[in-house]
């Protein structure tokens, strides 16, 4: 929910989904995105993961894809060293190289992740950088760096930017397109990141994990709006939502659907499910302010493991394929 400020030529497309930074010549501190309105972008403690889907449009010497730090300290960043034959991606910690990530060519779509672990017993934090070629699905590199006696609590977050050329000599603003930028307050595993890459920038992570059965994660407590699916088509292969969810627009599931956490609905047709709808232990239902009627369809029937369902102010009845709630002449139906 934080705001970002577009500087210079940094601009979003007509749909507000893709960011592009272009430059005229070699410029510094002119064309970039200031994240978080000078508020911390990463968690102030614990662990974190940053995901960026991007591509280079031109090579700019020592440009910075992502940076967090004080004005010119560059404590934690992912840099791009631009050359005619390719852009050498490099990870940096406190102005020291954390390792080379390899070449990134113009026009190729990449996914870059940076995970920051919680400190171990000796106070060492592990930073892991992974660069993947999205177009061919090939992991280019994985680099780990051990930051001794350091944690996120030590990170100065005066500035968090995309594409900023620092005040260092010959550090120019980047020319990049960013399709997605994500920050998590957990250190995602390799399997979770691989599932995210495979699913793409328009698919929320817990759906990506459903698409990749070999990956698993407990995101209980990390609420994600199911309404984020809207416009992306149906979710294929079924879906499990193991955390709190809010449905504000129609979610179409081709397959079975399992709901394991609190669910809030506030639209006419929040769910269309072709398979079995399972209400697991921990499921509860809340009807948000909505004039009704509300209809949720489960063509394969309903399996209720949550026990007796109660919604304050509503009268509930249940059959094999239908749960209906009536209030003031309105009805909420599960079919």
Describe this structure as you would to a colleague.
This protein has 335 residues and is mainly beta. Helix content is 5%, strand content 44%. The protein has 2 helices and 29 strands. It has helices at residues 190-199, 205-211, and strands at 5-7, 11-12, 19-21, 32-34, 48-58, 63-69, 76-83, 86-93, 96-104, 110-116, 125-133, 138-147, 159-162, 175-184, 224-225, 235-236, 239-241, 245-247, 251-254, 257-259, 262-265, 271-273, 277-279, 284-287, 294-298, 302-304, 315-318, 323-327, 330-334. Strands 1-4-13-6-7-8-9 form a 7-stranded antiparallel beta sheet, with no helix packed on it. The protein has a 7-stranded antiparallel beta sheet with strand order 2-3-14-5-10-11-12, with no helix packed on it. A 7-stranded mixed beta sheet has the order 16-19-22-25-29-28-27, with no helix packed on it. A hairpin with a 4-residue loop joins strand 11 (125-133) and strand 12. Helix 1 packs across helix 2. The radius of gyration is 23 Å and the shape is elongated. The protein starts with a strand and ends with a strand. Mean pLDDT is 76; it is low at 212-233.
């Amino acid at each position: 929910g934080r705001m970002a400020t577009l500087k210079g030529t940094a601009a979003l497309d007509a749909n507000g989904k893709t960011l592009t930074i272009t430059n005229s010549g070699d410029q510094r501190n002119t064309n970039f995105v200031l994240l978080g309105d000078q508020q911390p972008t990463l968690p102030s403690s614990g662990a974190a993961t940053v995901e960026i889907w991007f591509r280079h449009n031109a090579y700019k010497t020592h440009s910075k894809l992502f940076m967090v730090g004080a004005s010119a300290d560059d404590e934690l960043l992912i840099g791009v060293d631009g050359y005619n034959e390719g852009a050498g991606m490099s990870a940096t910690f406190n102005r020291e190289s954390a390792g080379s990530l390899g070449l990134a060519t113009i026009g190729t779509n990449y996914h870059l992740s940076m995970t920051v672990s919680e400190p171990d017993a000796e106070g060492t934090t592990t930073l892991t950088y992974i660069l993947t070629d999205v177009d061919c699905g090939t992991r280019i590199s994985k680099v780990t760096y051990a930051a001794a006696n350091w944690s996120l609590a030590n990170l100065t977050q005066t500035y968090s930017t995309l594409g900023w050329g620092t005040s260092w000599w010959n550090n120019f603003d980047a020319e990049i397109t960013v399709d997605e930028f994500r920050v998590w307050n957990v250190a995602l595993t390799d399997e979770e990141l691989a599932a995210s890459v495979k699913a793409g920038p328009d698919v929320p992570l817990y759906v990506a994990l459903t698409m990749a059965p070999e990956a698993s994660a407990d995101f209980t407590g990390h609420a994600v709006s199911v309404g984020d699916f809207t416009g992306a088509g149906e979710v294929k292969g079924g879906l499990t939502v193991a955390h709190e969810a809010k449905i504000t627009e129609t979610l179409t599931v081709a397959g079975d659907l399992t709901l394991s956490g609190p669910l809030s609905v506030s639209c006419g047709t929040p769910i269309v499910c072709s398979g079995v709808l399972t209400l697991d232990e921990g499921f509860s239902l809340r009807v948000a302010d909505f004039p009704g009627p509300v209809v949720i369809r489960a063509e394969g029937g309903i399996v209720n493991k949550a026990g007796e369902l109660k919604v304050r102010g509503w009268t509930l009845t249940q059959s094999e394929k239908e749960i209906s709630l009536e209030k003031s002449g309105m009805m909420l139906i599960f079919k």
